[in-house]
Every structure is written in C-alpha cells, then in structure tokens.
Amino acid sequence: MRKLTVSLDHCTYPIYIGAGLLSQLPVYLDEVGIVPDRKLMVISDTQVAPLYGERILASLKQQGYQVDMAVVPAGESSKNLQQFEYLIGECLRFGLDRQSVILALGGGVVGDLAGFVAAAYMRGIPFVQIPTTLLAHDSSVGGKVGVNHALGKNVIGAFHQPAMVLYDVDTLKTLPTRELISGFAEVIKHGLIWDADFVQWLEKNSAELLALRPEKMIEAIYRGCEVKVAIVSQDERESGLRAILNYGHTIGHALEAVSGYIHYTHGEAIAIGMVGAARLSAKVLGTDESVVRKTKELLEAFQLPTQYDGERFPEDRLLLAMKRDKKVRNDEYAFVLTRKIGQVEVVRGIAEEEIRAALQELRKDC
Ligand SMILES: NC(=O)c1ccc[n+]([C@@H]2O[C@H](COP(=O)([O-])OP(=O)(O)OC[C@H]3O[C@@H](n4cnc5c(N)ncnc54)[C@H](O)[C@@H]3O)[C@@H](O)[C@H]2O)c1
Ligand SMILES: O=C(O)C(=O)C[C@@H](O)[C@H](O)[C@H](O)COP(=O)(O)O
Ligand SMILES: [Zn+2]
C-alpha cells in the first residue's frame, strides 16, 4: 500500500493506494475519526453499486454503522442539478446531520457530484472519496466538486476537500476498456505538465499498463497523484499555478459541452485537447514540433484519440464554449500551453485565428 498526504492551510488528508483496501474500509474510516456514531450515506451509480456498493454496505453495517446508499444512473449525464437535488432529498430522508459523512463510491462523475452534495448539504458535511476508475486518481484529489450545465462543463461547483481518498486498485479489474484508456489521458497529462521522467516511464511501460499489471498501475496512480498533490498543496483555489492542471481542458471541455456530454469520455476529450494545446503552443510560443509529435505518439500508444470529428462539432460552437471556460478573463481565450515536455504555462489573449488554425489541424478529415 502507498500513501500520500495532502497538506493545506485548513486541513490535511491521506490518500491510500493499494490492492484489497475496500475490505478494510471500516479500519481506514476509523483512522480519520469516522466512527460508528456518525451516519453514513454511500453515493454511487447504477454500474458501480451492484459491483461494490452492496458489499461495502454489509461490512459497514456489521461494524455498527448506520448506513444507506443512494444511486444515480451511470455516466456523465448524471452530473447535473437534477441528480444533485435528488441526492439532497435522499440525505434528508435518511436523516443525515452535520456529523454525518458521505462516501463517494465510483468514478469522477460520482466523486464530483457526491462531493458537491457534501459541500452544500447543511452548508457542508464531510465526505470520503472511494475512486473506482483510473481517471478518478485525478478527480478524487484536490477538492474540486460540482456539476455541469448544458452550456458549460463544471460551471456549478465548489472547493470541498475530502476527509480521505481510499483507492483500491482491484476495482479497476471490472472497468470497461474504454474507461481504462480514458483514465490514461489524465495520467499522461500529469507527466506532460510537470514530470518529464514520468513521461518517459509511461512511454516505456504502456503495454504493461494497458494490460493492468498491478504494480505498474499502483506506480502510475501514485506518480499521477503525486503531481496533483504537489500542485494543489501550493494553490488550492486556483489563483495561479493550479490552472496548469487544466492542460488540454480548454478544447476538451468545449468538445464535451458541444457534444452534449455523451460523445466523448472526459479523458478522450482531454487527449484531443492536449494535442490541440501542443499545436497551438508551436504557433504561439514557438514550441518545437517534436513536442506535438511526442504528445500525439504517447496518447496513441495508450489508444487515445488525437483528432476530433470536425463535421459534427463546428468550430464556431467550440469557440463559443471556449469563451465560457473558467480560465477566461476580460473575454480573452485562455489556454495552458507547453514550452517543452514537463513544462507548461497559462497564456491569455491568443488571437482567434491561431485557435482556428490549431482546430483545423486537429480535425479527423485534416
Ligand atoms: N474534480 C476534479 O478535479 C476532476 C478531475 C478530473 C475529472 N473530473 C471529472 O470526472 C468525470 C469523469 O470521471 P470518470 O472518467 O471516472 O467517469 P465516470 O465516473 O462516468 O465512470 C466511467 C464509467 O465507468 C463505470 N465504472 C466506474 N467504476 C467502475 C468499475 N470499477 N467497474 C466497472 N465500471 C465502472 C461508471 O459507472 C461509468 O459508466 C468528468 O465529469 C470529469 O469532469 C473531475
Ligand atoms: O484539479 C484541477 O484543478 C483540474 O483542473 C483537474 C482537471 O483534470 C479536472 O477535469 C477538473 O475538474 C477541471 O476543473 P475546471 O475548473 O476546469 O472545471
Ligand atoms: Zn480533467
């Protein structure tokens, strides 16, 4: 088992990464002071609840916890205000009070949604992240919680840190292949923005990672989380540095919103967005073309898409969505761009023609 600690001004919490951790959930809860006199509500989705939810419920009840479970339909379409309201109702029905704790059991959708419920319910109660997707090594750490709006990704939300992240890598064995691959996009992002050695390691180990070799998976998740922890610890609320975690997200979030949150997984959209950002970096910062090539090759080694369907998702709609990005200031487009592998920065005020040119190169039919 590997452990990382997130240390912020107002709180500190552990991230545990290892195999077989779910069966020890009551022990880990006890370690962070969540004892059986506090009511628990597991929030999960229709795919994860039957696989792991019932088992967790039984083991918690056996330890004397009063615990219930609320389930939302699996997938990004559940990350909205309707499901948020439904879950608040479930918390009230079960009689959660300010001492109660929400357990988010699932991928990033459940983590963001349940975390937002925890942030808002009675003005904030504690929650624990129990990630079950690879992608959720990113979403479970750092306290960004929230839901989507039809016009913009994650535009309704809060910063609310979990009390603990308990990552049982055994859960990844049941993950659909497309979702496993999607998760590698954020792993790769963590290397591309911060850690060139990690990028080399990923290049070398792609086959074993795709084959889910346990010790390699733990290493990849640990190193990805390490990058996230280093950045969040310095800038919890994104006043500056944290924005680099948004590499690939200006285009990626636009693709997700314009496609109605159903065409691309988050990781697929971010993979395409990172190639777009690298292409734009070559135009705007004069970044070496080898960075574009390397980015594309690495994503392709993990079977991720590197082009988008330009026929289906017109440039003008993407540009409009990019103007609603949370990094925008004074109505200027904002991108995280790369200087070299492992080094990125936020750039504002990029001319629309440059972005259009990068999007043209990113189209499937290009
Ligand atoms: N808060 C953050 O910092 C942050 C960071 C990155 C991503 N995100 C958000 O995370 C979301 C994407 O998360 P995701 O990719 O985990 O998607 P997801 O939560 O929708 O999970 C993907 C699919 O896999 C299923 N699934 C999950 N775990 C499983 C398992 N162990 N076995 C079988 N099936 C399983 C789910 O039911 C779902 O159908 C996006 O909304 C994105 O915006 C947030
Ligand atoms: O933690 C962060 O900060 C990130 O930007 C991580 C991203 O991978 C993640 O998708 C996040 O939800 C995006 O945040 P947003 O503020 O752009 O909605
Ligand atoms: Zn992301």
Provide a descriptive summary of the structure in words:
By secondary structure, the protein is an alpha/beta fold. The protein folds into two domains: 2-174, 3-Layer(aba) Sandwich (Rossmann fold), CATH 3.40.50; 181-362, Dehydroquinate synthase-like - alpha domain (Dehydroquinate synthase-like, alpha domain, Up-down Bundle). The chain has 13 helices and eleven strands. The protein has helices at residues 25-31, 48-62, 81-93, 108-120, 136-139, 177-194, 196-210, 214-234, 249-258, 266-284, 289-301, 315-322, 352-362; strands at residues 2-7, 12-18, 40-45, 67-72, 101-106, 127-131, 144-149, 152-159, 164-168, 334-340, 343-348. The structure holds nicotinamide-adenine-dinucleotide (NAD), the ligand O=C(O)C(=O)C[C@@H](O)[C@H](O)[C@H](O)COP(=O)(O)O and zinc ion (ZN). Nicotinamide-adenine-dinucleotide (NAD) binds next to helix 2, helix 4, helix 5 and helix 6.
